[in-house]
Every structure is written in structure tokens, then in C-alpha cells.
Amino acid sequence: MRRLFCLALGLAGLLATPAGAQQLAYAAMAPGAGPLATQVVTVTGVTVEEFTEEDASDGAASGSDRFLPAVPAALPHGIATYGPFRVLDGTRAALVGATDERSPAALRAMLAAHPGIATLELVECPGTEDDRANLVLGRMIRARGLATHVPAGGSVRSGAVELYLAGLRHRAEPGAEFAVHAWADEDGREATDYPASAPENRAYLAYYREMGMTAAQASAFYAMTNSVPNASARWLTAAEMGQWVRSD
Known about the structure:
By secondary structure, this protein is α/β, with parallel strands linked by helices.
């Protein structure tokens, strides 16, 4: 039986929701967003990854809802759209929404059509609706050698933080923000309720190691995120995130 993991963020005084509800009251980055793209590419004829238990890395969560919805922000124009990705020009694409089980196929299709893309701009990134697919996506970003960049005003939250780490090089501008907190399963248990050696915990530590952290760095970063209860959040500036992940 697949285990469902969720990360939900509720901030007191901003939005009254039941415990575990996946909502967030969040101010838009800027008013007056224009059209998302001049061309919308419908990805058809592309095989969407079928994620089975065997695809999980050392017990990685499947089908998770690790995202923090927000008030729509000002999103960049694009010349083509692939799921949550927007092609900005010949060398840059932007992530402007939550990822899900279709996102690895969308990224693959985008890179096949625009092979010159070298940088992924993380603009408005609430997280993921499928954590296992999100970790696959992160590994694809690293394998392709893409850089990740968070511009001023960019917001990277919850499961999207794993995608920032995936960049072969990372850069976050002053004014970018990050949000982390503990995951929780369908029974309300969080990472610290499981043994440190449990597959549920090893999966994330293994991913951080693959993204270039030492064992000590991976453990410290994971402990930091899980020190914040699922019902709350820790907000980090670009400089604060740079203390955990070097900004190139």
C-alpha cells in the first residue's frame, strides 16, 4: 500500500484552516501579471512516467501533496508552456507552479524541443503534488546540468526546495524567499516520529547526498527542516538559505 506524505502550511492569523489543510495566505509578488505565454504547447504523445513502488529511492514517499498554494503572483511571459514550465528564451525556462506526476515528462519534452536551455528560473514554486515524481524531477535537473536561479521576489516553498538544490549551480538573489517545514504522513506522524534509519527518512538524506551535500550537511539540513512542525514554517531569505546551500 502506498504511503501518503503531505506538507501543509498554515500561518496563524492569515488563514484559518483545519490541521493538515494545504493552504497558505501569501501576498502576490507584483500586480498586473500579463499573459503567461504567446504559444501554449500541449504535450501529447509523450509517455508520462508511471511511478511504481520499485521506482522509490530507499522508501521515498509516493503520491505526496507537498505544496503551499498562494495568491497568484506576477508570472513571466514565455514563448512556450510545458506543464508548470515556461520557456523564456533559448537558454532559460521558468517554473511557475506546483509539480506533479506529469512534470518529469513535461521537462523531458521541453528540453527535447529547446535543447539550449541551461537555467531554470524558480519564480513561483509552491511545491509538489507528488513527492516521488518531484525527486525524479530533481535528479533529471541535475543529470542535465541545469542551473537553478531564484530571482528577486521569487518564492520557493516546501517540495520546491528540493528542486533548487537540484541545480548543478544555484543562485538566489536578494529578495528571494524560501519556506521549509516538516513533512507529515496521513496519520499525522512527522519525520521525527520515525527512527532515523527508517526508509521514510533515508530517502531524503540520500537525495541530498546526490545533490552534493556531505553526510553531515545532509543530516543537518534535514534536521533543520524537520525542526519546524508541519503546521508551521520557517521562512529563509536568500542569505539564510546560502548558509545551507552555497549560492554561486
